[in-house]
Design brief:
10% strand; globular; binds manganese (II) ion; two-stranded antiparallel ribbon
């Protein structure tokens, strides 16, 4: 669907540019009083990158139902087109995380160049051994990499190796292992043996990791298994990453913890132990709700970035986290949710860049609890929207990505261009 983005963006600038400039200049003076150079912060905002998942541009669902929207992408090329619109407007998502086999291309080289001409890369592959594919020899109903039967484990290992071979042709640099292994009933699994089998399978995958690649594993306390999971928490994830070797890292998905778990503490510890691989951003009220990043607990998101920016500032060795959105958009236009979420994640990063670290260190040394929090709150309550908008503007993006997207009527155009048969049924993605 061809849209005259430049024209729309210029029209927006004529309409909203003067007010933005005024807000930006005012914020610049305010930050200067705090000893902060707004241009330097804007440069950091502009350098920030968060990947979007290929599967995220299609409408998600719950165990109850899925309500497909108009103009859904029908193949991976249309998904890349949608990802391009997101990055075109918010300028923060040039990388795509590809799910195999949902978005497996027949011709990897063609997909890679299709993405490249749109300024996009395909940085990570994600395996799927939590559902059966047509014609598959063995079922994953009772697990994959940790299955009791060696033949099932071997099939799951082979799929992961296939993902990495494909990823090399796509220009990827990391592989993320997805599993649904676990038990639905107490006693169903010998939990220690299941973990031993999982780790054995992971070793085979790790040994085949292409040069320069990183391997990511992701803990989750429940779902699809509802009583126990093989990689149930960050401790087990850390243990496995350490057992595997220096190129294996733990991912933190915001929805994969019990309510009230202090996620920023987990992040700090993984940084400290050199095993933080990156993030799957989303937000959660009860469990793995897959709500939009920053929609429920923006302060938590900020506190996580506070740990990340501190590690960056202190030059922690090997610190190089990979950021990705991992959400299921059930009631919104996925493109709008992804744009808004990318901006929320970038906002938390920029707010964390405003923390007066020297002052915070001094308050911490003096055990001044109240002023330590006040230092964080000063950064968190600063409205950095003008910085984010100017960073987008400088790179040809929109001041308000969602407003320009709606004005473009891109979605309405797709409804005609991509007629889809009515797909019933439930499903997370
Ligand atoms: Mn995830």
């Amino acid at each position: 669907m061809a849209v005259a983005w430049d024209e729309l963006i210029e029209r927006e600038w004529r309409r909203s540019g003067p007010a933005l400039q005024e807000d930006y200049d005012h914020l610049g003076r305010q930050l200067k009083r705090r000893g902060v150079d707004i241009a330097a912060i804007e440069a950091r905002a502009a350098a920030f990158v968060v990947a979007v998942p290929s599967w995220g541009v299609a409408t998600g669902g719950t165990r109850f139902a899925r309500f497909a929207g108009p103009g859904e992408p029908r193949n991976v090329f249309e998904k890349i087109d949608d990802c391009h619109v997101i990055n075109r407007l918010c300028c923060v998502t040039p990388d795509i995380s590809l799910h195999i086999p949902w978005d497996e291309p027949d011709d990897p080289a063609a997909l890679r160049s299709f993405a490249a001409v749109r300024g996009l890369t395909l940085g990570t592959t994600n395996s799927n051994t939590f559902e059966d594919q047509p014609g598959q020899a063995h079922s994953y109903k009772f697990g994959s990499l940790s299955h009791t039967e060696a033949a099932v484990r071997e099939q799951a290992i082979a799929h992961n190796l296939h993902c990495m071979t494909l990823g090399e042709r796509l220009g990827a640099r990391a592989h993320s292992v997805w599993i649904g292994d676990g038990g639905n009933f107490p006693g169903q699994q010998h939990v220690r043996r299941a973990l031993d089998r999982y780790l054995g399978s992971l070793h085979a995958i790790y040994d085949a990791l292409p040069p320069g690649w990183r391997l990511f594993i992701e803990h989750k306390l429940y779902e699809p298994a509802f009583y126990s999971t093989v990689l149930n928490d960050w401790g087990v994830s850390y243990h496995c990453a350490r057992e595997l070797g220096p190129r294996a890292f733990s991912l933190v998905d915001f929805g994969h913890h019990a309510p009230n778990v202090n996620i920023e503490m987990i992040v700090a510890r993984l940084i400290q132990f050199g095993k933080l691989g990156g993030f799957h951003f989303n937000d959660s009220q009860y469990g793995d709700d897959d709500l939009d990043a920053g929609s429920i607990k923006p302060f938590q998101l900020f506190l996580v970035f506070n740990e990340l920016v501190a590690a960056e500032a202190e030059g922690v060795a090997g610190f190089d986290p990979c950021y990705m959105l991992d959400q299921s958009h059930n009631v919104t236009d996925p493109l709008e949710s992804l744009m808004a979420s990318a901006v929320e994640v970038q906002r938390a990063y920029v707010q964390a860049c405003l923390v007066d670290r020297e002052a915070l260190d001094a308050y911490q040394e003096r055990n001044d609890a109240l002023m330590s929090l006040a230092t964080l709150k000063q950064a968190f309550t600063t409205d950095v929207a003008p910085i984010l908008a100017m960073a987008r503007r400088a790179r040809g993006g929109a001041i308000d990505p969602v407003a320009v997207y709606r004005e473009s009527r891109y979605r309405q155009g797709l409804a005609t261009e991509r007629p889809a048969p009515l797909r019933r049924g439930a499903g997370i993605v």
